[in-house]
Amino acid sequence: MTIDIGKLNKLQVVKIVDFGVYLDGDEAGTILLPKRYVPDGLDLDDWVEVFLYFDSEDQLIATTDTPKALAGSCELLKVIDTNPVGAFLDWGLPKDLLVPFSEQQHPMKEGQSYMVYVFHDLETDRILASSKLNHYLEEESLDLEPKQAVDLRVSDKTELGYKAIINNQYLGLIFHGDAFRPLAIGERLPGYIKAIREDGKIDLNISQHSSKGDNDLENQILEYLKSSGGQSNLTDKSDPDHIYRQFKVSKKKYKNALGALYKRKLIVIAADKISLVQARKASSIWSRGHLN
Fold first, then answer.
1. Separation of alpha carbons 6 and 54, rounded Å
2. What is the CATH classification number for the domain harbouring 238?
3. Rounded (to 5) percent helix, strand, coil in the chain
4. What is the pLDDT of residues 244-261, one digit of tens each?
C-alpha cells in the first residue's frame, strides 16, 4: 500500500489512544488522526478516509477535513499573509498553504486571490502551491481536437485575452474577441477547442455556437425572429449581456451573424430593431390597406 500525501487516502486504524487514533501508513509508519477528527464509533481495524498533510511541526498527520484543493489540482485561493519566505494561502486547514517566492508568477499580495497549482514537493517533502501554472500544466495539445467540448477554469488575464485551464490538464487562451463579457479569475464554464495552432498551443471558445459555426447562429436568429412576430429589439447595438443571455455568444459573433443575414436579404436592420424581410413586407402591405 502506497500513501498519497496531499490527497485523500483510505487507511486502517491500528491503535487507539486518548488523543486520537493511529492509522497504518505502510512505509511512512503510523499516522496520527487527532481526536477532534475521529468519527464517532471508529474502532480498531476500521477503515477511514483521511487527507494527509504536514502540520505546523512538519509532522505527517491525518484529518477527516477536506481542504479546498488537493495535490495535483488547481484552485482559486486567497492570500492571508506574506513574509520573507513567501505567501500563505487559506486552503481550509489549520496550517496555511505556502507559495514560495520562487513559485509566484507575480508577487502575491495579502487579501488577493490567485489560481494556484497544489503539489507535494519531494525535495523538501512539503505540500506547496505555485501560481506558475505553465510549469505544471501542458500548453501544447497531445490529445485535444478542434470543436471538442471541454471544461474550463479562467486562470489569468493577459493583453490577448484570458488564460484558462482545460480539464485540469492543459492551458489555453480565450481571445478577448471570443469573450462575450469580462471573465472572472477562477470562473468555471463550459468551452470548446477553437483551434490547435501549428506550435501546438490551444485557442478556446466559450460558446457552443462558436464551435458549431456561424450558420447555426444565423438559423437561431431567424427562428427567434419568427417566434417573436418577425421583429426583435436585440440589435448589433444591444448590451453584450443581453445578447449572451439569448444566444450564448459574444456581441462580435452576433454582429457578424446579423451582417451575414442582412447580406442574404433575410433581415432588415434598423437603429432600434431587426426584422425579417417577409415580416416587414407584410407590415407594409397591412399599413397600405388601412390607409386606402
1. 9
2. 1.10.10.10
3. 25, 35, 40
4. 888 877 788 888 899 989
